[in-house]
């Protein structure tokens, strides 16, 4: 299946890799089908792309690369929604808000995107309010601390 | 909507496991104490609006951002 993407032009995708977000993403409830595409081998970023609408493409990152001590518990409700049975089912991404430079960009640690990679189900969950995991976590902070 | 009046230190139960207690009333602010199992998520409702807004902002990335990143 050929889809239009936000950054990569037309891309041939395998329909079996489509991830269903049954509630959409906050702010965009109408788009339910997404696919993960790699963006650049040099950067720890991927594109969470709607298969229905090219302009709906979120740059996402593995949060653990930028914040090694990032941990949270999934609620029973979220586990049920995503049919998660074991830890290995789970992939966690954070949506990145890119600015002029990568260092000025932020990532959303408050509301990670959780994907059950075996069942191909996804949901953007909301963690308990916490100063440690903000909506706009500066990537600069993480890049600096990783050195 | 169910409307209940409560005084300071009084509380309400939501289901068998969630208690919401009025801790203090100061002018136009009410301080609530919430006792709930860990599986129940409690948020200020502004949090959801903020996440929607952040998602919209995240989409405002220009198509040539990869070039910028490589600089």
Q: What would your notes on this structure say?
A:
The complex is a heterodimer of chains A (147) and B (71). Chain A is built from 3 helices and 11 strands. Chain A has 147 residues and is α+β, with helices and mostly antiparallel strands. In chain A, strands 3, 4, 5, 6, 7, 8, 9, 10 and 11 form a 9-stranded antiparallel beta sheet that branches. In chain A, strands 1-2 form a two-stranded antiparallel sheet. In chain A, a hairpin with a 5-residue loop joins strand 1 and strand 2. The relative contact order of chain A is 0.17. Chain B is an alpha+beta fold. Chain B has one domain. Chain B is built from 2 helices and 3 strands. In chain B, strand 1 and strand 2 (18-26) form a beta hairpin. The radius of gyration of chain B is 21 Å and the shape is elongated. The model of chain B has no long low-confidence stretch (mean pLDDT 88). Classes of the chains: A alpha+beta (147), B alpha+beta (71). Chains A and B meet through strand 6 and strand 7 of A and helix 1 and helix 2 of B.
Radius of gyration of chain A: 15 Å
Q: Rg of chain B, please?
A: 21 Å
Strands of chain B, count: 3
Q: Briefly, what CATH class of chain A?
A: Mainly Beta
- Unreliable spans of chain B are none
